[in-house]
Amino acid sequence: MKVVFHFVFFVLLVALTPALKAEDSFVVEEIKVNGLQRIAAGTVYNYLPVTVGQRFYLNQIAPTMKGLFKTGFFKDINLIREGNALVINVIERPSIAKIIFKGNIDLSDEVLEEALTKIGLSEGKVFNRQVLEQVEKELRRQYFSHGKYGLRLETEVANLTRNRVGIKVDISEGSVAKIKKINIVGSRQFDMAKLLGEFELTTSNWLSFYTKDDQYSKQKLGADLERLSSYYLDRGYINFKIDSTQVAITPDKKSIYVTVNIDEGDLFTLDKVRLTGNLVVNPEELIKLVSVGPEEVFSRKRATDTSKSISDRLGEEGYVFANVNMIPEIDNDRKTIDMTFFVDPGKKIYVRHVNIAGNTTTRDEVLRREMRQMESAIASTTKIERSKIRLQQLGFFEQVTVETPPVVGATDEMDVNYKVVEKASGNMMAGFGFSQTQGLVLNASISQNNVLGSGKRVDLNFNNSDVTTVYSFGFYNPYFTDDGVSLGYNLNWRETNSRNANTAFYSMDTAGASMNFGIPVNETDRLRFNLDVNQQKLKDYSASGSIFDAIQALGSEASYTTFGGAIGWSHNTVNSAIFPTSGRQQRLSASATVPGSDITYFKLGYKHQEYFPIAKDMTFRVKGEIAYGDGYGDTKNLPFFQNFYAGGVQTIRGFNDNTVGPKDSQGRPWGGSTKVLANAELLFPVPFFEDNQSMRLGTFVDAGMVSDGGFDTEYLRFSFGLSGTWLSPFGAITVSTAMPMNTQDNDDIKMFQFSMGSNF
What is the DSSP letter of 145? Predict the structure, then answer.
């Protein structure tokens, strides 16, 4: 209407202007634009159908004004003629100086601002009241998607200086509407509770305050309906469909009732399964990957898994862009399906370049020696993924990603691009504490896992307490040879004063040196060899009781020189060195002092750790350990200072360090020759925290025992509790609180335990 008014006004004005009575056009000698504040004059000129020197006609007035109004920059426009000059008078719309939200708790300012930006309302833009009318609609949409149906909004526009406005939105979010009932109408083949178990949304329960699964969300309901469809399709109901969905809310906006109407359809089974196309790989290998067969109930998931398995197998041979299409032939009368997997391998792909980015500290050669996918070689999805896992296992990076873009202009080439995000590879730990058993504890350690970006590790440790004083130096080169043979050295000095500890009553000085080798067997297995020499001197021990008897059994000597060796096997398939989510770790070891040592003994040990991904960001971990030691030759038993101990944060949480197991004649922990440990832990992200890469929580059950031989249930202990780990800028901080389950009168309980370090 405003455009029409100005058009009519201008026509009347022109009709009354003597200069235009004689003619309906004039040659423009000058163009003037008045009233501009923020808008550049060039913007106006761009919408004019005439330039200086051209003739301007009356029939150009309407489209000119229409074009200028269409920009949205002006709320008033006036065109007049002054002599042979065309004068354009404009009044600009105000700009938005600021948008203020008050009362929003559930949704942040950033989320609301992003929503308004999508409808053209943001700070710095031209203010248009017509757009303002959409603000309430958009904000309601945002809050409704979060179940806030009791929302109330008030919008206020204030005029500011320099033709600006400020917009204030007062928000009363109200309470979240809770789901009172979900009903699935039409389900005959499956129990209602089982179907609702597939839903993320549910009615209120005792965990809803944390999970918020009783708060209605349109997006969550959509995801639940997809899961419901998948549930039926994976069980043979291929004609399943959702007829309708009704969401009803009570008048007080607090309760929601959801009704889903479904049509299950009929159950279909497989009649024939075929594998056709250009197989390129031995058909017998591909047939083994087919997980569906005749007379089985059709499952979309198993069919999809079969297609993916075949594609992955072709990818190992270089056909990384292979397509395996599922072609079902449905017989509605017989309720059967003939399934054909058609293989289109495409071209064999070669790798042009392997590119690595993000390693600012780590040398390129350190990363490239972990590569299993080579340049100019046939591309292999297995080797590409294995290379990624090996980079993750280094422990130098917070994140490793890989992309495989095709080479432009080449149909049979691609690049492999790895991108890493480095973390601090050095670790400097320093701390102090106090306990009734150890008194004041001071410790410090410096370890650099990636010295000067070379991939080599150096460790320097110092620990001082009322119990122990330790000095040690270690060096480790994972690639002593080009084929992956590792070499390590270690020097250490330890003074132990068990008078102040919760162990047997003795003191000992130990000096030792060791050298170890590691030999790779394959991608996941490794053999390790160790040679060591130790000088151990007992002092300040009791002249009677268990200590004295043990020393007498060793030959009445209090100083021992031993030469020993060890062999070990390790297996590692975990997908990351930091918070792994899948894979397995195993370690088998055997060590012994050789004949000619002052004392002769051996130790055997086996450790197993496995990770199972059970949901997004949720991992189940199980650990187990068994160890046994004994003497041989003139040494009848395992020396008491080589005994195994249990209790503490690394073994059985909830019990003080080293206190689980046999006691000596004075009631102090003595340790034993046999150790058995087991642990199960559910790991999950910290609630309400977006940074799931550096924090984990866990709920665990620990069990274990130490005995003087064999499995003795007398010393078996259990505990359960919660744990938390944070990879802070100061290093890894681990906290646990545990409750022992079967304590005895002489057990030493320690329910809260923690450790921390500092990165540099």
Answer: T
The SS3 of residue 512 is strand
Task: Give which of 210, 240, 213 is closest to 227, Cα–Cα.
Answer: 240
Average pLDDT score over residue span 257-276: 93
Higher-confidence residue of 503 and 281: namely 281
Compute the average pLDDT of residues 677-682. Answer: 94
Q: Is the dihedral of CA 687, 692, 694, 700 positive or negative?
A: positive
Residue 162 confidence (pLDDT) above 60: yes
Kindly indicate the confidence band of residue 4, based on its pLDDT and cuts at 50, 70 and 90. very low
For residues 545 and 542, give the distance between their C-alpha atoms in angstroms, rounded to a whole number.
7
Model pLDDT, residue 432: 45
Q: What's the CA gap between 352 and 359, in Å, rounded?
A: 21
Distances (CA, A) of 497 to 361, 465, 536, 632: 42, 9, 13, 28
- Token pair belonging to 506: 């003795």
CB 138 within 8 A of CB 119: yes
Question: Average of pLDDT values for 146-174?
Answer: 81
Task: Give the C-alpha separation, 93 to 131, whole Å.
Answer: 13
For range 222-246, the mean pLDDT: 93
pLDDT for position 422: 84
* Residue environment code for 544-557, b if the CB has 16+ CB neighbours within 10 A, otherwise e: eebbeebbeebeee
- The whole-model pTM stands at 0.59
Give the whole-angstrom CA distance, residue 627 versus residue 623: 14
Q: Report residue 119 as tokens.
A: 């409808």
Determine the angle formed by the axes of helices 300-316 and 218-233, rounding to 10 degrees. Answer: 90
Cα–Cα distance for residue pair 201/176, rounded to 1 Å: 14
The one-letter amino acid code at 744 reads Q
Reduced to 3 DSSP states, what percent helix, strand and coil does the chain have, rounded to the nearest 5? 20, 45, 35
Q: What is the pLDDT of residue 20?
A: 38
Using one digit for the tens of pLDDT, what is the confidence trace for 555-581? 656 788 999 999 999 999 888 777 888
More confident residue, 489 or 451: 489
Amino acid (one-letter) located at 640: F
**Contact criterion met (CB below 8 Å) for 114 and 139:** no
Give Cα 384 to chain centroid, integer Å: 20
- Of 267, 197, 186, 269, nearest in space to 232 by CA: 267
Taking the C-alpha atoms of residue 248 and residue 177, their distance in angstroms, rounded to an integer, is 11
Cα diameter, the chain: 134
Integer distance in angstroms from the first to the last C-alpha of the chain? 68
Domains along the chain with CATH numbers: 2-92 (3.10.20.310), 95-172 (3.10.20.310), 178-263 (3.10.20.310), 269-344 (3.10.20.310), 350-422 (3.10.20.310), 426-759 (2.40.160.50)
Nearest to 113 by CA among 103, 102, 101: 101
Contacts of 5 (CB under 8 A, 6+ apart): none
